[in-house]
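step=encode ok
step=design start
structure_in=
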C-alpha cells in the first residue's frame, strides 16, 4: 500500500473518531435525571392548568416567564400577545381551563400529557408539550437554574 493511501485511511479514521467523540460528548450533557426533571416541569405546568392548581404551575415556572401567542385580526394584522408569570397565575386562579377543551372531547377521558424533546444542551432545553384535551399546544424553553428546571419561555398556538 502506498504511503499516501495509508495516510488517507489514517486521516479518515481520525476524522470519524473525532466525530463520534464529539457526538457522544454532547449526548452526555443530558442525563436521565435531567430528562425526568424537564418532564416533571412540563407536567406540572400542563396538568396544573387542567386542574387549576396554581402552586403546581408556579413550581414549574421561572418568575420572569414570557408566554407568547401570535394573533391576527380580521384585517390580517399580526401582533404578539405576551403573558407573564403573574398573569398566568391569575388566569389559573380565575379561569376554568376545561372550557378550552377541543370540540368533541370526552370530559370523562383521562387527561394525558406528552413531552417531545428537541434539544438539551448546557442547562437549556427545548420541548413541545401536547395533551389530549386542550385546543392548544406549547413550544417550551426551559433552563436549569440552581439545579432546578424552570420554564422560561412558552410560544403557543391554537390547534
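sequence_out=
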Amino acid at each position: 500500500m502506498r504511503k499516501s493511501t495509508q495516510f488517507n485511511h489514517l486521516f479518515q479514521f481520525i476524522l470519524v473518531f473525532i466525530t463520534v467523540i464529539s457526538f457522544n460528548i454532547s449526548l452526555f450533557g443530558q442525563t436521565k435525571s435531567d430528562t425526568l426533571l424537564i418532564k416533571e416541569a412540563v407536567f406540572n405546568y400542563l396538568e396544573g392548568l387542567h386542574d387549576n392548581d396554581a402552586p403546581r404551575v408556579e413550581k414549574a415556572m421561572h418568575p420572569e416567564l414570557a408566554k407568547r401567542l401570535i394573533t391576527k385580526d380580521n384585517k390580517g394584522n399580526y401582533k404578539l400577545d405576551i403573558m407573564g408569570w403573574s398573569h398566568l397565575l391569575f388566569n389559573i386562579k380565575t379561569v376554568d381551563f376545561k372550557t378550552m377543551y377541543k370540540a368533541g372531547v370526552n370530559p370523562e377521558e383521562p387527561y394525558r400529557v406528552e413531552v417531545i424533546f428537541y434539544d438539551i444542551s448546557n442547562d437549556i432545553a427545548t420541548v413541545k408539550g401536547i395533551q389530549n384535551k386542550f385546543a392548544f399546544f406549547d413550544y417550551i424553553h426551559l433552563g436549569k437554574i440552581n439545579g432546578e428546571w424552570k420554564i422560561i419561555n412558552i410560544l403557543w398556538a391554537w390547534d
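step=design ok
step=annotate ok -> DSSP finds four helices and six strands in the chain.
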